[in-house]
Specification:
mainly alpha, 2 domains, globular
């Protein structure tokens, strides 16, 4: 087992370090974290508007609340790509050392030039929502790197000394803005002449939809959860991996919310909130293990760790258990730590695929919401029951390994106490 741990460290650490140091992925992860309030408000507004309970529907219809919910849903989730467009260029620009505000302005201009519009009248909301997410990623990546290139090569208008910084920055962005505008106009006209019709339709059809078809399958999702847990086991936070999937799972959540709105079957199983099932109780599904520490440990040290870690564990924060036991780089606890999320993912997928538990509505629930409550909020009582089952199953997976570690540490404590 020690050889396996050493092998994983040697193989995973370079990959994990490369991913965690990637400036664009880092900026993307921070951007989605900042968007969380918008996503949560929008998803609950959709749920409030379209939850299929007749007395509730009669109430919101007669009181006028339905329009409040619909308006909230439109200005949040239906415009999610536009919110990302206002955050991602700034976050990525800071990573590259360029002016973040100028990066937003040029990115928004480029995005709108590539978006088919009715002149002086309206912008199509279709490409401001989940369908435009990958377009935002492509444009932000291009614009920020173009600005970085112009800055490094000193391709910008220089101002005399003494000019205020804000004026200097605005003039420095004129040349990259002009280049971005020319490229955007040329591309917009090229795509208009193709069967795709526009840049966004091309990105959505050729990149986003095929990627979702691959990434939102059971094998791909299992791989993501496996890497998330392995990285965490080696001391690198699993969000490094999940940020790669966030645009896809967020788009899947939006598709389910749209289907809920239209009264259609929910198309996606793996939504952005599926992690409350795949990693129930925190990364590695350690909630049951933490309860074992509190109520079953004979080792004084493990019981003390459990008492400290139990409250954070209830809210999905597994670090006190991970570092306190420790689980990290512990050969004995490697198996339950890695196996538990795989079992949870498969059980949750199968129960949803065959219809025992309904698919998640796409309502965004923060990972810090305790299990059972998070399940109820994300879909209903069936998901809450599923979480209870998963906690029981993962506790049983952890139990024999817990006994081994507890017996080992208790013996060490006894031996130390006799000296």
């Amino acid at each position: 087992m020690n050889k396996l741990i050493d092998y994983l460290q040697n193989k995973l650490m370079p990959i994990a370090n490369k991913l965690s140091s990637n400036k664009f992925l880092n900026a993307l992860g921070k951007s989605f974290q900042l968007l969380l309030p918008i996503i949560i408000i929008g998803s609950f507004a959709c749920l409030g508007a379209f939850v299929d309970i007749k007395p509730w529907q009669d109430f919101i219809g007669s009181s006028g609340l339905i329009m409040v919910f619909l308006n909230l849903f439109f200005v949040t989730m239906k415009l999610i790509a536009f919110y990302l467009l206002l955050i991602l260029p700034y976050q990525y620009g800071k990573q590259l050392g360029i002016n973040g505000v100028s990066a937003i302005v040029i990115s928004v201009m480029s995005y709108l030039l590539l978006t088919p519009t009715e002149l002086f009248a309206s912008l199509p909301a279709e490409w401001m929502g989940h369908a435009g997410l990958f377009g935002v990623l492509v444009i932000s990546l291009f614009v920020c790197n173009l600005m970085k290139f112009c800055m490094d090569k000193k391709i910008y208008i220089r101002m005399p000394e003494g000019v205020p910084t804000i004026v200097e920055d605005s003039f420095a962005s004129i040349i990259p803005a002009f280049i971005a505008a020319v490229i955007a106009v040329i591309l917009a006209n090229i795509f208009a002449a193709t069967t795709f019709g526009n840049f966004h339709n091309f990105i959505y059809s050729v990149i986003q939809t095929p990627l979702q078809g691959l990434a939102l399958t059971l094998p791909a999702y299992l791989l993501m959860q496996l890497l998330t847990t392995l990285f965490m086991f080696c001391g690198i936070h699993g969000s490094t991996v999940t940020s790669l999937f966030s645009p896809l799972t967020l788009a899947a959540s939006s598709q389910n919310l749209a289907a809920l709105q239209a009264g259609l079957p929910l198309p996606q199983i793996f939504t952005n909130t599926f992690g409350i099932l795949a990693q129930v109780g925190g990364i590695g599904c350690t909630l049951g293990f933490t309860f074992l520490l509190v109520f079953k440990a004979k080792s004084k040290r493990l019981k003390a760790v459990g008492k400290v870690a139990i409250i954070p564990a209830i809210f999905g924060i597994s670090e006190p258990t991970l570092f306190g036991v420790p689980i990290m780089l512990n050969p004995i606890l490697f198996i339950p730590y890695v196996i538990s999320p795989i079992v949870c993912t498969i059980l949750s997928y199968v129960t949803m695929a065959i219809g025992i538990v309904p698919r998640l509505t796409g309502t965004e629930v923060s990972w810090t919401v305790p299990p059972i409550l998070s399940g109820f909020l994300s879909q209903g009582w069936q998901t809450a029951v599923l979480q209870v089952v998963l906690i029981i199953v993962t506790t049983l997976i952890w139990y024999p390994f817990f006994k081994i570690v507890d017996k080992q540490i208790a013996a060490e404590e006894l031996e130390t106490g006799t000296k």
